[in-house]
From TrEMBL:
Residues 34-43 have a biased composition (Basic and acidic residues). S-adenosyl-L-methionine binds at residues 171-177, 194, 239. Belongs to the class I-like SAM-binding methyltransferase superfamily. RsmB/NOP family. One of its GO terms (biological process) is rRNA methylation. This is NOL1/NOP2/Sun domain family member 4. Residues 13-55 are annotated as: Disordered. SUPFAM superfamilies: S-adenosyl-L-methionine-dependent methyltransferases (SSF53335). One of its GO terms (molecular function) is RNA methyltransferase activity. The active site is at residue 294. It comes from Magallana gigas (Pacific oyster). It is found in: Mitochondrion. Residues 17-27 have a biased composition (Polar residues). It comes from the Eukaryota.
Length: 368
């Protein structure tokens, strides 16, 4: 009796497996009880349905393909992890593909400007890795010189400051480029803004240590530069926050490549574009804007310039052109090494014999 029960159980199990196998070979419609499609007569009887309303008809008469399979709704080759998707997003954010450009950007030539006579700087020859001693207090309790990356002077030189210029330093702190602009003695008024109190405090300290009292022509304020819109200035410097490649290499503390700051790093190109757009809006027609970073990232350099042009072209009536500043190369070839394949600006590359940069500079003129 027990043997008979066991044999029957095995038979039923085998029969059930065969039934499932046979059913799985049937079309999906045979396995799933889809709602019956309403006939045309049923649709016509509905007084609330307009014959011309195609969206309503589509909703009433859903189309289910005969070959529909559940496998149509999941990846058939590979499922990406969150980490892999994030890596792909990082790669897209860090890349500038000029083959995808739609908005035309005009690049024009200009006369080579004269170097400011009162802007004095000293560097060792190429290949000489000597270091300058720390500056000491001199007459009037002022420090004798300010040490900075020599490539950081190029944005100031590209601005081509003239007598009576009204200048905006959009991301002024910590103040090295501000100090260089003051040294040219050509600014009628210089407005320095930054959104960080701690960084502005550093700028004020530099002014006190190297100039003494803050010049009457200079004003400092805590402001979000992205909110500026009124065209009050004829020269604007937009030295934006960036990856700060050199700082990342020499400092492990809280640099932008820490995992906890990943989101901040991914948002940088958008923030940079908004700052550049605000800088261009703050510039009078006929004035010029210099955009600069200290990163090698193409997306934060040429990519941001084009994104800003694209935004202005689509969202405003502002016209701009890029000014070719390749004239900087022969002037400074004995000091800096320039990357030859940028699209809009110039990029100083750090090398063993000329360890300056990275520094990207692009000059833009507002036409209207």
């Amino acid at each position: 009796m027990e043997k008979a029960k066991l044999a029957r159980a095995k038979y039923l199990e085998k029969e059930n497996q065969q039934t499932v196998t046979e059913q799985s070979s049937l079309p999906l419609e045979s396995l799933i009880d889809f709602p019956k499609r309403p006939s045309h007569s049923e649709v016509d009887e509905n007084d609330d349905v307009n014959d011309d309303d195609e969206d309503v008809k589509e909703e009433i008469q859903p189309v289910v393909g005969k070959n529909t399979s559940l496998y149509d709704f999941i990846p058939t080759k590979r499922v990406y992890t969150d980490k892999e998707l994030l890596q792909q997003h990082i790669a897209r954010v860090a890349t500038f593909d000029d083959s995808l450009l739609e908005v035309p950007v005009k690049v024009i030539q200009e006369q080579v400007p004269e170097l400011p006579e009162d802007l004095k700087f000293f560097v060792y020859p190429k290949g000489d890795i000597s270091k300058f001693p720390n500056p000491k207090m001199k007459h009037g309790n002022l420090l004798g010189y300010y040490m900075m990356d020599a490539a950081s002077l190029l944005p100031v030189i590209a601005l081509d400051l003239q007598e009576n210029d009204s200048v905006l330093d959009l991301c002024a702190a910590p103040g090295g480029k501000t100090l260089a602009m003051l040294q040219t003695l050509k600014t009628e008024n210089l407005t320095c803004i930054d959104e960080s109190w701690s960084r502005l405090s550093r700028l004020k300290d530099i002014s006190k240590w190297y100039i003494g009292e803050t010049p009457s022509s200079m004003s400092v304020s805590k402001t979000d530069g992205k909110l500026l819109e009124d065209p009050f200035y004829n020269k604007v410097l937009v030295d934006v926050p960036c990856n700060t490649d050199r700082h990342v290499l020499i400092s492990e503390d809280n640099n932008l490549f820490k995992p906890g700051r990943m989101e901040e790093r991914l948002e940088l190109p958008t923030e940079q574009m908004e700052l550049l757009v605000a800088g261009i809006k703050s510039c009078k027609p006929g004035g010029t804007v210099v955009y600069s970073t200290c990163t090698l990232s193409p997306a934060q350099n040429d990519g941001v310039v084009h994104a800003a042009m694209d935004h202005l072209w689509k969202e405003t009536d502002i016209d701009t052109v890029v000014i070719d500043i390749s004239y900087l190369r022969p002037i400074f070839r004995d000091i800096f090494t320039f990357f030859p394949k940028t699209k809009y600006g110039q990029l100083v590359l750090p090398t063993l014999s000329s360890n300056f940069g990275p520094m990207y500079i692009c000059k833009i003129k507002r036409i209207r």
